[in-house]
Amino acid sequence: MKHLLVVAALILSSLATRAELFTFYAITSNDSSGHAQFVGETQLYMDVTLLEMGQVSLVFKNDGLEDSVVTRIYFDFMPELNLGLVAINEGDGVDFKATPVNPKNLPAGRGLESIFISDLGVAANNPSPKNGINPNDNLELIMSYDDSYDIFSALGNEDLRVGLHVQSFEGGNSESFVNVIPEPGTLPLLCLGSLALRWIRIKKSRKGKKGDTFTPYLTENESTPLQWVEIKSNHTRRDMPHTRCEAAMRKGFS
User: CA-CA distance, 23 to 47, in Å (whole number)?
Assistant: First the structure.
């Protein structure tokens, strides 16, 4: 009997700590250059972690420097899953509410082959560009659900879909995104793309400014591990903390 209790405790412990990382893909193309879509797909993440039975933590992160603000989050799920909002835990500068969400459905969600129809949503309070999930901000939603279902399977087979409406991209564009699980090997590619994008954007931001000898590079020391450092005339101009992708790449290569 004692052995059975130990096994049961280990199983419950495993369930409680199970977690997966989800990324998002664009379903709109309001930015004809593709820049906004690329930023959203490489900068937005959702950490899903099981809590006690029947509850799950969803942490939404805008992990990067590019202009973008998550202002609304939508959930489309089969009724049997019985998904419900338990709590909203906001990072500094983030202010969200449960109702009402306007528009009620994810913009362009009805145009998908498998139509996205929102059953639940949360939105940033006005002014939404200020109170939404800006770069390096985060928001945690504690959700309840019918624990006879595997929440990760539901996210993988579209029994549960999460949609983001993201505003304030460079140029004022807005785009919609839906969750997706990266296939093995996909995340490193996304990270490499994000790394390249940051370098290009840094270079582009200084282009044409007379007298600038401006080169971004990666460095690390004891006080600032793996920072982007901008150099002008051989002097440090600005330090920029690494993104999650860059940290993961460093860990993988070390």
Answer: 9
